[in-house]
Write a structure and sequence with these properties.
Length: 270
């Protein structure tokens, strides 16, 4: 079975899609067959790649038209990386999209139909504590939490951890917390510094690699490519994601189950 890495975050806009995309690129570049799935109704992955809302079929088309997921998977030029995008969805139909996906068995069968071809499935799930986050976690093997290096994200983190813990207790005993990645770290800014400090002090499952607030990442978004596709300019940033991918793989590799972090027993934060 492939690993299913659910990327979520306590708050929106903190670089969760950026993390999911670049992690998937890096895992593919490391030789793992990787599928990046966008379960966020906002269509973040397509937007990150400079695509509009009606360009590609994806999850929404599978739900609405009974198209097989294999027919809407998009191969990329990035090695070993394919995409299952959100698909074509009228914004006013988002509530149906969310409730269909949250129906028991839907997501499980969708992923079950494609996973044999992949080592890793990276899922860009929504932020916060909505039903769709729970539904994604219920089908995951690991949760990866993108925590913005700002006080609001750090304060909201307890909510996300509570949801992960509850899904693990009630719906999916196979779910493990892979860890937390600090995103949009700006060490020139004192509130970002103190958010990083409180995360390092409060938790032992924060990855050493962090994602800095970076002009190159912002520029990659503007162009609509991952940083590794920006030539020499993006090389350093791409290497950071490669290092993070190695750290993540160490935790999620089946041979290393013992180093997975158990959310039942987090170190006290307050
Ligand atoms: N490390 C970074 N450095 C600079 N800009 C960034 C960084 N990460 C994200 N951004 C910018 O922030 C915006 C939001 O990023 P992204 O979509 O990855 O966040 P998100 O958490 O997925 O948002 P949402 O909750 O809306 O899905 C993008 O416009 C992107 O350019
Ligand atoms: Mg997003």
């Amino acid at each position: 079975m492939s690993t299913r890495l659910i990327v979520t975050s306590p708050t929106g806009g903190t670089g969760r899609t950026t993390l999911a995309l670049h992690l998937a690129v890096a895992l593919g570049a490391a030789g793992r067959r990787t599928l990046l799935v966008d379960l966020d109704p906002n269509n973040g992955v397509a937007h990150a790649l400079g695509r509009g809302d009606r360009t590609y079929r994806g999850v929404a088309d599978v739900l609405a038209l009974d198209v097989a997921p294999s027919q809407v998977i998009v191969e990329t030029r990035s090695p070993n990386l394919a995409l299952l995008l959100r698909g074509r969805l009228d914004p006013i139909d988002v509530p149906q999209f969310e409730s269909l996906l949250a129906e028991r068995g839907r997501l499980s069968s969708l992923l079950g139909l494609v996973e044999a071809q992949f080592d890793h499935i990276v899922i860009d799930a929504p932020s916060g504590v909505r039903a769709l986050v729970r539904a994604a976690l219920a089908e995951g093997t690991h949760a990866l939490v993108a925590v913005g290096a700002d006080p609001r994200s750090v304060r909201a983190l307890a909510q996300t951890l509570r949801v992960i813990e509850s899904v693990r207790e009630r719906e999916n005993r196979n779910l493990a917390l892979a860890g937390m990645v600090l995103t949009r770290v700006d060490l020139k800014c004192t509130s970002s510094q103190s958010a990083v400090g409180s995360m390092w002090e409060g938790f032992d499952c924060v990855f050493e690699s962090t994602i800095p607030e970076s002009e190159i990442i912002a520029k990659a978004w503007e162009i609509g490519v991952p940083v590794g596709h920006m030539g020499a300019e993006g090389e350093f940033a791409a290497r950071r994601f490669a290092t993070l991918a190695r750290e993540v793989e160490e935790v999620i590799s089946p041979a290393n189950q013992a180093v997975e972090h158990n959310v039942d027993n987090p170190r006290p934060f307050f």
